[in-house]
Amino acid sequence: MRGADPELVRRALAERDPLPGTAGFAGEIDGRLVRDVLGRQPLFSERDDPETWSFDHRDLTDPISLPPGRVRTVTGDESAADEQVWSLPSPPAATDTDEALATVRDAVFESVNAISDDGLAVAFSGGVDSAVVAAGVPDAPCYVVGFEGAHDIAAARDAADTMDRDLRVVELTHDAIERAVPEIVAALGRTNPMDVQIVLPLYLLAERVAADGYDRLAVGQGADELFGGYAKVAKAPDDPRVEAETVRGAAREMVLTLPDQLERDVLTLRAAGVEPVAPLLDDRVVEAALPLPGELLVADGRRKIALRTAVAEILPESVAEADKKAVQYGTYASRELDRLARQAGYKRRMENHVQQYVESLLE
């Protein structure tokens, strides 16, 4: 069992408690495969033989992922069906905003302060998510990744100076991208450009972290989903990328995308040689975020209001309120992968030109 004590998992199964106080778990227990409600630990089994399973799909011949919140009986019976044991809670919106903010503050502080800095580095982009994680481990080195001139490098330098933190810069190159893409595809089993673009900088940053002797990487994952960090959430219901009619409903849609994202990111970071640590995805933070009303998520163009307000007492205002670009854009990974595709003859007028380029690197 990864991520939790087996007795705690047994209790969560018996009580059908989706948020029993962990940062995610997966594994085999009492003849059953289990994966937590947000899928924070990937788990796979052979399609026709659930007795054969692994945390890495590459160990299997015909792997299928165990969906989040489910139990798969390990019987060897091809007809055995998964059982949905846990579902993400859907609490009503909090009406006492002061109490809701205090709950978020306590949950975030407890989670980030509980991180051990043994063998730990921090993925640091200069945004509020990674900054509050870094604040919990003041002695851990911070790493930022990107091409020369990238937004994330400039923002991370400014934030590190303001916070008086050690910052190490991992500069991306075209040669590194061309080498890393096949390794990433092998780790993920995916070739779609968006996934590759997102994890490219993470993979290369994690490689450097591992080479420097660290085996754990703290990340700010989950904050955008839990606290309303996406533009499409802020624009709900007018943004066609979300189905919800409210900001709060759109934020929940984003939370429900986490299992697929986390499988991608965790597999990538492990392939690079580090174990991810995501304190903002701790059960207590999830439980504190789910009841937030829309006005504590987004208002007047300001996103992640509850999180920014909660951490204002420990972060400089310029950092707590900093805007953040998605990693593939803030590091220029998306732009440069597209440039390499075009230089290799895969022009934008061609259908899926970047994916064609990615697949060409596998040959």
Automatic annotation (TrEMBL):
One of its GO terms (cellular component) is cytosol. The keyword Nucleotide-binding applies. InterPro entries: Asn_synthase, Asn_Synthetase, Rossmann-like_a/b/a_fold. It comes from the Archaea. Keywords: ATP-binding, Nucleotide-binding. GO terms for biological process: asparagine biosynthetic process. GO terms for molecular function: asparagine synthase (glutamine-hydrolyzing) activity; ATP binding. SUPFAM superfamilies: Adenine nucleotide alpha hydrolases-like. It holds the Pfam family Asn_synthase. Residues 104-237, 251-348 form the Asparagine synthetase domain. Residues 58-84 are annotated as: Disordered. This is Asparagine synthetase B. It comes from Haloferax marinum. The lineage of its organism: Archaea, Methanobacteriati, Methanobacteriota, Stenosarchaea group, Halobacteria.
